[in-house]
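Annotators were shown the component list below and the corresponding predicted structure, then asked to write short factual statements about the assembly.
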Amino acid sequence: QIKLVQSGTEVKKPGASVKVSCKASGYTFTSQHINWVRQASGQGLEWMGWMDPKRGNAGYAQRFQGRVTITGKTSITTAYMELSSLRSEDTAIYYCVTMGESVTWGQGTLVTVTS
Amino acid sequence: QLVLTQSPSASASLGASVKLTCTLTSGHNNYVIAWHQQLPGRGPRFLMKLNTDGSYTKGDGIPDRLSGSISGAERYLTISSLQSEDEADYYCQTWDTGIWVFGGGTKVTVL
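Structure shown to annotators:
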């Protein structure tokens, strides 16, 4: 059974960076991309980018280019999403998601940006 | 540009059926989509992948009363025998090389 377990709640000040982790299990980590999706309170789902654990490359949604970095460490089957220059509008729940035959969501990580 | 359009809301009575629509932008008819459910206060849950031939593959534990279908650029999720626990937001999602796209979501209310 594929499982994605994310790191815990984060509270950050404007201008800071946050790094959220996503531990994968139940499948071959290098066989599926990991994507990151966020959701602000009361809003819809917003895709941020992807990472290919096999090749080590990543791609990002245009609106996050230059501010987001998605990486992975295959030895510990963990993916990371780092978002920099945080502002209050980045307050949201961040999800890692993987898609093979089906789609598996992490449990979500609340990131609050507040002064 | 690849865009998915969903109606913001839908409602139906307990025990009835509701059919949700997700429309692909013109020229993008041949895309597989996924449907996800988000219960109030919870994270999204994968429901099914809906193929371009109308076949679908459901996630673990998804009941038979949920089904998918297609017509041209439209993708549907039908929930039969509507129950109170079906009250949720439903999102469609698709993908192309290097991008994912989500619809705006449909809030389903059970009357």
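Statements collected:
1. Chain B touches chain A at residues 34, 36, 43-46, 49, 57, 59-60, 91, 93, 95, 98-105 (CB under 8 Å).
2. Chain B is about 0% helix and 55% strand.
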